[in-house]
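Q: How would the structure tokens look for this protein?
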Amino acid sequence: MVRRRGIYEIEVLGMPLQCTLCGGTTFIHREVYIDLEQTAKDIPNQLTLQSFACEVCSTTQLIQEQSHHDEPNIVYIEVDA
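A: Here is the predicted structure in token form.
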């Protein structure tokens, strides 16, 4: 697992991410790697998810990071802790 040090506000597809439980807007980040069984030729062996834990209540949200025309779907904005 990889952890970005610090607290972040996150934008997904240009929209601010909010905690689904408390509405918090600041998150601690981790990358989660999941090994997959190879069931089809077009599926990678490993899935990488971005895990965002709410700084207020620790509720975790998982989002797969992808790029479209070299633009990522997730933007990290570091905020003061």
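Residues 13 and 72 are 8 Å apart (CA to CA).

The mean pLDDT is 86.

Upvote if useful.
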